[in-house]
Every structure is written in structure tokens, then in C-alpha cells.
Amino acid sequence: MEKNKSKSKHDMHLDEMDFAILNYLQADGRTSFTVIAEKLNVSIGTIRTRFNRLLDEKVINIIGRVDPAKIGFKCYAQIAVFIRPATLKEQIAQTIAAMPEVSFLAGTSGDYDLIVDVMCRDNDHLEQVINEISKIEGIFQTKTTIYFKVYKYAQPELSLLDLY
């Protein structure tokens, strides 16, 4: 029984109302349950219950999203990481994920093993981060691309899922 309970958490089914709630919250995370309930023609309790379920299941989380450039992060970069032996990939990924400068980290196919996006105060800070990453056992090469200007920084557009 416990096994099925655990599995259902990972296979959470989201319906049309869940996605409608998510759409309103993505547009403005401060939208009240009252406003969402009125727009969806359901009770506030329904919205609250669904919202809490989405939170409990980690479909959403509550954050204050800042514009990094406006608060002092002037250097964005992407670092491609080459790992040998490949068996160290998970361990290295965990180490890099713990770094506060890391905003995105993914395993990749192709020439390199990990892609890391970082936000740094300036080029000197970026150099420190690259040096720190390069010292991790199993990393034999990095390749850095600096972003001069970020034109779009957004959450995924839910309508792309073609759910309706």
C-alpha cells in the first residue's frame, strides 16, 4: 500500500482546473484565491485545496523572483563541463548544484557532460567560480560562454503542453 502511495505522488494527474490555476499564478503570483475562484467560477475552498495540493506535490513553489541585473549580478555565463571518468558525473553534479552561483544545471548528451549556468557579480567573481569548478576531482576541462545580454528569462509557457 505504501508503495502505491509513493508512486501516485510522482504520477500526479493535473487537470484543466489545475493548469488554469497555474496560469493565473504564473501571470501574477500574488493573485488572490478569491480572484482565481471568481474567474474559474468555483469556491475559494476549491482553489485553496488545489493550491495546497500543488504545493505539497512540489508542482509549484513560492519564491520572490528578482531581476539579477537590478540587484548587482552583472555577469552571466554558461559553463560546459567535461568529466572523466563518467562514473563521477552524479557526484560532481551534486557538488556543483550546491554552489550558490549556479542557477541551472543539467546533464547533457554530446561533447560535454554537464551544462552549468551561473550568475556572478562581475568577471572576477566568474573567474573564481570557474576555478572552483575546475578543481573538482573528475573535471578535466571546462568551456565558458559569457552572456552579454539576456533577452528573455521566463518560466515555461503552459499552453505549449496542448492540454485542452
UniProtKB/TrEMBL annotation:
Domain HTH asnC-type: 14-74
Keywords per UniProt: DNA-binding, Transcription, Transcription regulation
Keyword Transcription attributed: yes
Membrane-crossing segments per the record: none
Protein name, entry field: Lrp/AsnC family transcriptional regulator
Annotated organism of origin: Parasediminibacterium paludis
Lineage: Bacteria, Pseudomonadati, Bacteroidota, Chitinophagia, Chitinophagales
